[in-house]
């Protein structure tokens, strides 16, 4: 089925398909038609690149598909291709991301705008193949832009936008598009894809590397020894790239919205205008939280949700402003920060709140580790705790709390 979405500037036709999150991301990559894809299988990402390999085999893309022997090699080959001037991609999950860790940091340090879907899965051990955010959260300080997807539609849209965001000349940084393993990657949903591949390719544009390694007329070196004389300055430049990513994400999202009718921003405020109690979430849990907020609103509870779409760079000012009217807030983390009180997102927000003099009582709720279910009833329980905190005007007891954990 084909539909059209219109506004005062653009009209684009859409095709409605039933797609898993993996297939949605693969279709986005197909429509972009990257130059090189270095691939290695790992559950639950495997089907994403299986689908893309099918597109390659069928001649639907011109991409050079490179089968490598490990995730470390996948990122190494992607870095080499990108440095040579190609638009390059890969994808991974969990332990695969951990294996390529060394080269993940090199990709951002060399300012290579690689796009990599990360299908979130628990980092071992013990071995677990299901969803939490310990893999991508472990990379939060390695210089990659991180976008989190609530559903398969967002996985598709974020993947397309990621190319424009990272390739901005003022940014030149790689982008992770995160989607929850199995919860999104293997669940079929209604997804609207842009009907004409040309519209997608026109949107992302032709990639022209500023300093390609293979340009013999302008020889450059990638990854040289960089000791005490210049490393500090080069890392400082990477910081500036991250700062420019804020505007790049805003601009690209706005343009994509005009083209498709689907609007995105750094964060999404859901029923927050008059909310007294609110949760902060990212990934697929945001969808469950929306259902919870609607149900609580029907019962007269002034509940709200702040969904973080872009976690890196961290939109601290937007988050603090969005939460400033609340009387109590829970930050829901699908990963631990071992040795800290509360999860990684909680600590980011608490630090930002201190700098902004935001004095809203705030707690950390750890949930869903290793793929454990999170449902409306559980999130309602979180809101129940928030009502008590709001009434007391402060957090009593532990700041770090757990949802769905057996005694």
> How do the strands line up in the largest sheet?
10-12-11-14-15-16
Radius of gyration: 21 Å
Poorly predicted segments: none
Structural class: alpha/beta
Short description:
The chain has helices spanning 21-32, 46-57, 71-84, 94-99, 101-109, 134-138, 152-167, 197-204, 231-260, 285-298, 316-323, 344-355, 376-392; strands at 2-6, 11-19, 36-39, 64-67, 88-89, 115-120, 145-148, 175-180, 189-194, 267-270, 277-281, 303-308, 310-312, 328-333, 362-366, 400-402. By secondary structure, the protein is α/β, with parallel strands linked by helices. The protein is globular, with a radius of gyration of 21 Å.
Task: Provide keyphrases for this structure.
16 strands; 13 helices; 6-stranded mixed β-sheet; 407 residues; alpha/beta
Write the layout of secondary structure elements.
Blueprint: E1 2-6, E2 11-19, H1 21-32, E3 36-39, H2 46-57, E4 64-67, H3 71-84, E5 88-89, H4 94-99, H5 101-109, E6 115-120, H6 134-138, E7 145-148, H7 152-167, E8 175-180, E9 189-194, H8 197-204, H9 231-260, E10 267-270, E11 277-281, H10 285-298, E12 303-308, E13 310-312, H11 316-323, E14 328-333, H12 344-355, E15 362-366, H13 376-392, E16 400-402
Parallel strand pairs: 3-4, 3-5, 6-8, 7-8, 11-12, 11-14, 14-15, 15-16
Antiparallel strand pairs: 1-2, 2-9, 7-13, 10-12
Helix pairs in contact: 1-2, 1-7, 1-8, 3-5, 7-9, 10-13, 11-12
